[in-house]
Amino acid sequence: MKALVYHGPGERSWQDVPKPRIQAATDAIVRVDAVTICGTDLHILKGDVPTVGPGRVLGHEAVGTVVEAGPGSDRKPGDRVLVSCITACGRCRYCRTGSFGQCLGGGGWILGHRIDGVQAEYVRVPYADTSTHLVPEGVSDEHVLMLADILPTSYEVGVLNGRVAPGDTVVVVGAGPIGLAAVSAARLFSPGRIIAVDLAESRLEAATRFGADTVIKDDPLQRVADLTAGLGADVAIEAVGVPETFELCTRLVRPGGHVANIGVHGKPATLHLEDLWIRNLTITTGLVDTYSTPTLLSMIAAGRIDASPFITHRFAMEEMEKAYEVFSAPQETGALKVVLTRA
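The structure corresponding to this sequence follows.
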């Protein structure tokens, strides 16, 4: 079969690899019908995630069809499933409290990280019963695909960790796919104002379409101060993953406010405790647990969430290299999320 293989920083190829096979009773083999690329995949390609070694098949967001299941799984051939970016054993201390991202039983973020991922024609999914979700009838592959990572990540790590509440001023720094997902998720809690900050005009335009009330390109500190009578934002969500944007968030938020970090960081950021200790800030980080996926899936099925605006480009699966080129150059291409489907 074909798969997208990482060969070290800056190196990848769409190539032949062995088809996966059942290795444990709880495994399932899933034929990948729709797959996307994540900003985390770009971080891996930059060398920001050294735990990913050469030879790894990348990707952790897919929708597909079960073709084989181990004797310990309730999944059946023909089941249409969402493959979660987080694998859960369902039995360890963390899984029992819904903290699936910290699974001690061989789960967590492993697809495209510690084991071969989903940017392939077929994928082995460990702990299939607790790591996949049956797709409701009438929900398209494209829409449910956005629930593999970006929507639960923005909802859990950004909005819920940030304690967004009705009437709040929420600043989202970074209007890429995950930042736009945070804008969408924040709207579910009726904030008073959502502000998006980015350097790219195309992404600020997208933020407006996704529901941001104000977009800012220049001098965000002064602009946010002006909009909040000098107080600052109640919640600042970091959705880029570079030191400068994290430090900006700590300056944009008001005393007593929340900074919720979503971005994947490849370099250290300075925590200015000499300034922050007195401001009563709450700073949270997190890997998504995907405990919210069933809720979000039901909301998509009911039409309460529309995931279609995230998708800007579509490719056949064999066009994986072209899809990476488009996704990695959003300022030139306007790409948000790209979807690749089986021919």
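The mean pLDDT is 96.
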